[in-house]
C-alpha cells in the first residue's frame, strides 16, 4: 500500500530551525562569538542527536563551552554522538542535564568520569565504538541533527580550511549536511579567502571566529629521553623476529614508548640487519616526531595520517614525497580514510596495552575507567574483507594453523596483530592477568560486554622482554595459554609456566627468546637510539620540527 | 631524603655450574626504576649468594624467583651478587643481571 505522507520533513525542520538563528547571522554565514549561545538555543531541540567534534587530537572546545551554557529549559537530554569526550566540559554536559545519552569511541582522561556518570544514572551509554565504527553509524542509525565542528580558517560563504588537522571533519559534515542537518563551525580565523577548501561552504550553515584557537593535544609525541634499555631490547626483537622475519612493509604503529623505540632504532639496528627497503616502507600513522630519523635516513616511502601532530606541520610540508599534501602545499589528514587504510591496506598492527588475560584477550579498560579504544581495534584485528595478497599477509596466513578447520585447504592470508608489553607495568602492576579488569568494569558501569581492545582470535604475536609468542602457530586454546605463560615473566600467569612445556614450545618455534633470535642482550641499551632526546629530533629535522613547549627542556 | 631499606639474602646452587670467570664486575646505576649490581668471584663450593638492598617490601618471593631463574639459565656458580635497588621491575633486574654477566665475556 502506497503511503501518503510528506517526504521533506527534514528539510522543513531544517528551515524552521535556521529561521530561529537568522537574526544572529550576518555578512553571509558569519555569527559573532557572543551570539553563539543564542544560535545554539535556536537550532538545537531537546533529545536531538548532536555531535561535538573532537578526538584524541583536535577539539571544538569553544562550541562545547557554549553548549553547556545554554538554557536547560530549551536544550536538554541531548544524545551526544561524538568521537571522544576528553575534556571536562564533555562530562559536565551530563551533570547539568544538557546531555543524557552518549555514543563514543574514546574517553581518554575522562574515562573515570564516564564510568561514574553511568553509575550515578546521569549518563546513558549507547555503546563504545572504534572511530570507524562510529563514523559508519553516522550514516546509518546515529546521524547527527546538529554538528559543532572546528577549522583553522573559514570565510563568509562557509568554506573551511581544516588543513593538517582535518581529522574527523569530512565524515561528520557529510553525514550531517546530507541529511539536512545543521553544521556550525568554530574557526581560528575568519578570512577573505581560505588557504584551501577542505569543506565546501554549501555544507556549512554558520561560521564563528572563536576567541582562542581550538585545543590540540600532542598525544603522539614521545620524548626519546624516556625510552628504557628494556624497550630497546624489545624493539630489537620486534625488528629481527617479526618485521624482518615477515618482511612487513605496510603497517601501523600504536602509541607509546615501545613503538617509539622501534622507530628510533630503524636507522641503526635495522640498517645493520640490512632491512632498509625491505620493511617499514608505507605507514598509516600520525606524524610521530620519533619517525623523523627513519624518514631522514630514507626508510619511508609514504605516510598517510589520521590527524596532525602539534609541531610537525612544517616538517611534513617539507617532505611532500612522504606525506599527503594538497595543491596549496599543506598537509591534509583524514581519520576516516586513514583508519580504512589501517584496516584494509596494512599488513601489521603493533601496539601496547594495559592487560592481557591468560587466553590472549587484551584491554586498556580498568575497573573504574571507561577509556574507550579510539582506532586501535580497527587495525588490531584481521580484516575479514581483505582480498589482496602481500608477502607478509600470506606468510602469516600460511602459519595460522587452525584456519584449515574452517576453510579446508583454501589458502588465505592473515594480518599480523602484535601486542608489545613488559610483563610488569608501572608500579609493579602485572600486565598478564587471570581475568581482565574489563569484566569488573562491565559490572560497575552496566555494560553489556567487557570492553576488549584486541580479541585473542585476532592476536598473532605477544612480545615481552622474555621473547615473542607466535600465537597463531598454536594448535589449541591450551597451547596458546601455555605460549602466553611462557612469555609472561614473573607475573602470576608467568610463574604458572611449566619449564618443560615452555622448552617444547621454543623447540617448535612458537616461543622465541632473544637468544633464539640471536640477539645479544648486552647491546640492548639507549646508545642504539638514533635520537636520544627531543633536541636531537629537532636536529635530524633540520630545525623543521617545532616541539611544543612542554617537550623543550634545553 | 630518608627511607627504610630492606635487606634480602638468598643462596642458590645450580645443577650444571659454569664457574664465574671474572673477579669483579660492577654494572648499572641506582636511578629511579633501576639498580646496580656487583658480581664478585667467591669460592662458595659452587653456590651463588645474593644480597639485595631495596626500599620495596613484600616482593621477596619475586626476587627469589628472578635470581633463581638467572642462576639456572646462566649456570653461574661460585659468585656473590650484590644488588642495590631503586624500584627496578623484575624485567629490569633480569636485564641488568644478564648485562653484568656479559661484561665479563
Main β-sheet of chain B: number of strands, strand sense, barrel status?
Answer: 5 strands, mixed
Protein chain pair with the most extensive contact, residues per chain: A-B, 17 and 17 residues
Unreliable residue stretches of chain B: none
Mean pLDDT of chain A: 96
Going by helix content, strand content and strand pairing, the class of chain A is alpha/beta
Structural class by sheet pairing and helices of chain B: alpha/beta
Mean residue pLDDT of chain B: 88
Number of helices of chain A: 20
Beta-strand percent range of chain B: 35-45%
Secondary structure: helix percent of chain A: 25-40%
Oligomer: heterodimer
CATH class of chain B: Alpha Beta
Helix content of chain B: 25-40%
What can you tell me about this protein's structure?
The complex is a heterodimer of chains A (about 550) and B (about 100). Chain A is α/β, with parallel strands linked by helices and about 550 residues long. Chain A folds into two domains: about 10-215, Glutaconate Coenzyme A-transferase (3-Layer(aba) Sandwich), CATH 3.40.1080.10; about 225-535. Helices cover about 30% and strands about 15% of the residues of chain A. Chain A contains 20 helices and 23 strands. In chain A, the strands form four sheets. In chain A, strands 1, 2, 3, 5, 6, 7, 8, 9, 10 and 11 form a ten-stranded mixed sheet that branches. Chain A has an eight-stranded mixed sheet with strand order 15-14-13-16-19-21-22-23, sandwiched between helices. In chain A, helix 17 crosses helix 19 (about 500-510). Chain A is globular, with a radius of gyration of 25 Å. The mean pLDDT of chain A is about 95. Chain B is an alpha/beta fold and about 100 residues long. Chain B has one domain (about 5-105): Ribosomal Protein S5, domain 2, CATH 3.30.230. Helices cover about 30% and strands about 40% of the residues of chain B. Chain B contains two helices and seven strands. Chain B has helices at about 60-75, 90-105, and strands spanning about 5-15, 20, 25-30, 35-40, 45-55, 75, 80-85. In chain B, the strands form two sheets. Chain B has a five-stranded mixed sheet with strand order 1-5-7-4-3, with helices on one face. A two-stranded parallel sheet of chain B has the order 2-6. In chain B, helix 1 runs parallel beside helix 2 (about 90-105). The longest helix of chain B has 15 residues, at about 60-75. The N and C termini of chain B lie far apart (about 40 Å). The interface between A and B is medium-sized, with 17 and 17 residues.
